[in-house]
Amino acid sequence: MFTERDSRRGERRIDPATNLSGLAVALADIALSTQHLASARCLGVIDFTVLPDPALFRLTPAATSQLRAEVTRRLSKALRPQDRLYSADSWEWLIVLADLPNSVPLMMAMVRLDTLFADSLPGYDGNYLLLRVACGGALHPDDGREPRHLVQSARIAALIADRSGNRYATYDPAMEQIDAAHLQLHAELPRALAGTGGLAIYLQPQIDLNNGHCVGCEALLRWQLPGGDKIAPNHTLATVERLGLRSEFTRWLLQQAMQVQSRLRAEGVTVLLSINLSAHDLLDDELPDLIAQTLTTWELAPECLLFELTETLMIEDTDQVMGVLLRLRKMGFHLSVDDFGTGYASMSYLQRLPVQEVKIDQSFVRYAESSERDREIIASLVQLAHRLDMLVVAEGIETAATAAIVAKLGCDRGQGYLYGKGMPVDEFIPWWHSNEIAAS
Questions:
Q1: Distance separating alpha carbons of residues 108 and 73, to the nearest angstrom
Q2: Structural domains in the chain (count)
Q3: Residue 398's pLDDT band (cuts 50, 70, 90)
Q4: Residues 202 and 227 in one domain
Q5: Diameter of the chain by CA atoms?
């Protein structure tokens, strides 16, 4: 029902067809609402989806916009004044029901919404359409304490409602049947986050392309189960999200990164350590305070750390996200836009961001030797970044020829297998000292 590309598109600030805010704003609003939720009260989220239908694909763009506007009008009319409606995707809406006593009003709301579309709607192309819809409901805190996890629970309920032939359903953990391998991950991850081992940070070097010195490194996630199986980072993060452990994971990551940077400093290794932050992290108003506390514990200066954020996330910011970024920058941390070139950033937008670095996505760097188009894209991105006084890091450098090309195009730093894969800190320290000797 949902794709990653559709999800990112749905997160944009305002949908012109419906005049509704998108997913990023919904997540921020949910985060704020749950912080002020009275005890013994609930917050409900409904995922309302118009299911794919051949007739929908035949609509003209103008008719599609008119039909989505009509669906929005009907949904808005059925809601209470305190409820909020968002456009999560082209045919997906999110409804946030505030201050509920239990799950009963959530179910009643879904029944009411379902009846709104029992009759055909004008198709605006001269025909009438009978929309097939599915509703999924989830409650905070029972079905998810974190905003994105709560929305995911509602989406899962809508998916199951459609598959089972029903039109609406409330979330139930039994909806997520998993195999034995996933059960092991679910059992082991909380233990790993508690410090029993297996979960670790590896370091991949970042090289100054002008002189060959290693000036930074990125913290990469590695997880090895007790039996020896290695879990890919994307599967690790998917398990974190599935279990609703993003806050716990972020705390673990910050502690590990600070500990690693403290060790590096003690060994005479002076590098800027890069850490990735997620959308959920930046929706947490307390994140800067948490980072400051961890920094104090390890007696580190903020100038030795850099936080990477995906360009897509930066484009789909909210005022809350921007506030967190400004606080981090004011505290002295470096900020970087990761995967630069894969989103929609303009120069005017980048000017407003408190970032000092951009990382050109490896999809452009990997074929720089053979693709003139990729070289032109890299040159344009470098020119844009340098006009804003930002450093440029080229990711995915695997050959000396590629390194020479991106350096000639103006990239300041490089990262990739040419210089080294992710290494445990015990391997990175001697590698760094050897590289410094060779670069001198």
A1: 19
A2: 2
A3: very high
A4: yes
A5: 76
Contact (CB, 8 A) for 135 and 47? yes
pLDDT tens digit sequence for 94-106: 999 998 998 889 9
Give the mean model confidence (pLDDT) for residues 66-87.
93
**Pair (248, 383) in one structural domain:** yes
- pLDDT per position as a tens digit, 229-246: 899 998 898 888 878 888
Q: What residues does 276 pair with on adjacent strands?
A: 308
Same domain, 427 and 310: yes
Residues 117 and 245 in one domain: no
Percent of the chain with pLDDT over 90: 61
**pLDDT tens digit sequence for 333-360:** 999 988 777 665 556 667 778 999 999 9
Domain residues for 81? 4-175
User: What CATH code is carried by the domain that includes residue 356?
Assistant: 3.20.20.450
Q: Note whether 161 and 95 are same-domain residues.
A: yes
pLDDT band at 2 (very low <50, low <70, confident <90, very high): very low
Final residue in a domain of this structure, among 175, 196, 223: 175
- Judgement on whether residues 159 and 214 belong to the same structural domain of the protein: no
pTM of the model: 0.70
Q: Which of 152, 175, 198 lies at the terminal end of a domain, its last residue?
A: 175
Give the model's pLDDT for residue 106. Answer: 93
Q: Give the CATH number for residue 137.
A: 3.30.70.270
In a shared domain, residues 204 and 332? yes
For residues 171 and 235, membership in a common domain is answered with: no
